[in-house]
Design brief:
mainly alpha, 66% helix, 0% strand, globular
């Protein structure tokens, strides 16, 4: 079940990445719902996903 939630989170984040406000809101929700080791995985994924999307850099402050 937990893995499904992580994969669902990734799917949602990819779909809302067109809007930085929505993306940040979904990152916040994900950080509150995921397990600690999944948060670490999400951090890694976010760094890779936002590497070439400067409009989403503001959301990276949420993971620190």
């Amino acid at each position: 079940m937990a893995r499904a939630m992580f994969e669902y989170t990734i799917t949602v984040l990819q779909k809302v990445s067109f809007n930085s406000d929505l993306f940040c809101k979904e990152v916040e929700k994900a950080l509150s719902r995921l397990l600690p080791y999944e948060r670490d995985e999400l951090t890694i994924w976010l760094r890779q996903f936002t590497a070439n999307k400067p409009e989403l850099y503001s959301c990276m402050t949420l993971i620190n």
